[in-house]
Design goal:
globular; about 75% helix; mainly alpha
Length: about 100
Amino acid sequence: MHLKEYIVKMLDSPYDMKALTTVVIAKTLFDMGTPVYDAVTYRLYEKYHCYIPDCFENPEYLREALKELYGTSHKVIIYSIEQKLKEFTLDKKTESFLQIIVK
């Protein structure tokens, strides 16, 4: 068994993958700067009445919030999230999440 497969098996619960995705999104936004994190979380709540963890089930909310705030530059943030999560695409929900945000 490869390390990736082992990690995905350890993160077997959908709650674990949701938590991992939440941390990756939050870290990526914070890496871009606190104002970016604040703007995205505000937009998510203002428009969709949701928080970052809710984006795992509704990735289109994150994609649209980033597009609205940053135009075509949103792709830089999406790419960073994708790079951090792509090794976990053995999990179908994570794979689906990534497919939706990169559209």
